[in-house]
Prior knowledge:
By secondary structure, the protein is mainly α. The protein has 14 helices and no strands. It has one domain (2-397): Proton glutamate symport protein. It has helices at residues 2-23, 25-28, 32-71, 74-108, 136-151, 157-195, 197-231, 238-252, 259-268, 273-286, 289-305, 312-325, 335-346, 352-397. Helix 3 runs parallel beside helix 5. The radius of gyration is 21 Å and the shape is globular.
Amino acid sequence: MKNHMSLLFKLILGILAGIVLGSISAFVGDNILYIGFVRLFVTFTNLFSTFLSFIIPLIIISFVAVGMADLGKRANKLFAITLGLAYVSTILAGFISFFVGKLTLNNVVTTINNSEIVEKTFEPIFTIQVDPVVSVMTALVLAFLLGIGMANIKGTGLLNGMRDLQKIVENTIAKVLIPLIPYYIAGLFCKIGAEGKLVSTIKMFVTLFFLIVVLQLLYILIQYIIASIVCKKNHLKSIKNAIPAYFTALGTQSSASTIPVALECARKNGIKEEVADFCIPLCATIHLAGDTICLVLGSMGIMVSQGIEPTITMFFSYILLLGVTMVAAPGVPGGGVMAALGLIESILGFTNPMKQLIISLHLSQDSFGTATNIMGDQALALIVDKFDDFTSAKENKN
């Protein structure tokens, strides 16, 4: 518990430090020393992001594949269960958002003036290009293939090699990533504050912004209540152990980047290690309930601000397809809205100015949406762990 609290304290301190450092921009203007300081911070976050992008596919391949292999033939069923739960949770978040929007948005949304957006840009001093060995989606498919394959063959040579790879990745996480994440978060918030993106966007969308965040927090509670009902155990207490993952996601804006901390939290909540190693990286890729809440409620708010009345007819297909389309978004801060733009344009009929508004809104709350995704991953893992216990008991009985 001491390590978790220490990490949580460092994460909060990093967020606050980044906000304070970024806010100084409003007082010093174009001071050369300050600009150099921010660019130095931005350079660090850029390099760290590059390394994260490189190692994320390795995390997915080693953890998911070994986790599925350790589950044995149960992995076949648990994969289908996890996939189904993630999709249902994502579209449930979408439909709840739609009905909340229908009840509230006409009373709270005002016209938004695009001309109010004024931003500065701070570029890194230098960059280093390190491409991942494979893409996130390729890593995920490869992990499925290897994991299910190793679970259904008698040989152990490949599995032992994958365990060695997992150990290398675990050491990298523990000795490099975890210690540097608070500084990475501080740099991210410093950049956002210095560029003025967060303040200007919240000023335009303040009511809509907080409505989205409140609904995201409520949906986290709903997921843990459902987990408590399914598992027949009070899992509301599990929220406390998952808080470090929430704050990590709040800073990194990436579910995939938060996998190391999320795995620690899952084990703290008593989820079996093999289930956690399989479920947490998988859900980080396919479970995007937080993004769905923003993209549904945010799209509705923008439509209302333009005098367009959202209907269940157009949003029904939009939500169902959104649950599938955003699987392409993991690991990239702001990737959810980019993956969804095609649907937003083709189904909802957004014009270019309207698309810019949803992009701005999504980016301003992306940290909170990602944190919602991560907290939901923990709830789904608790349910999957319960299903695994049931499957194990059934196999032993037979």
